[in-house]
Amino acid sequence: MSRTESPRMRKVNELLKELVAEAVLDLKDPGLGFVTITDVDTSPDLRHAIVFYSVLGTDEEVEASGEALTRAAPRIQAVVGRQIRMKFTPKMEFRIDPSIGEGLKIDRLLHELEEEDGGVDAAG
Which class for 1: exposed (0-12), middle (13-18), buried (19 or more C-beta within 10 A)? Predict the structure, then answer.
């Protein structure tokens, strides 16, 4: 959506992140695993928000949690809408946070390189 955030948009995104995280904690869906809301990116017109999340668990648990969040999106929007004073409550779309997977991939590659080098520090 918008990569250059104004101070106002940062505040909106942070508030939505907190409210969505609280709403997710209250969900009783058995498919929902250990979910962490990592970021929110709201469109400039405040009508749409992408909610990024991470899930601790297997691929099946990640998939089940994504489905549970998609099912719960209207309920989460309603909860958030009752708690904020905005002209519109953004329609929420849940997406797995790609930065978590990328970070794990980089970490794994660094460990592989370290093992190939025999654990010797490159500086000395």
Answer: middle
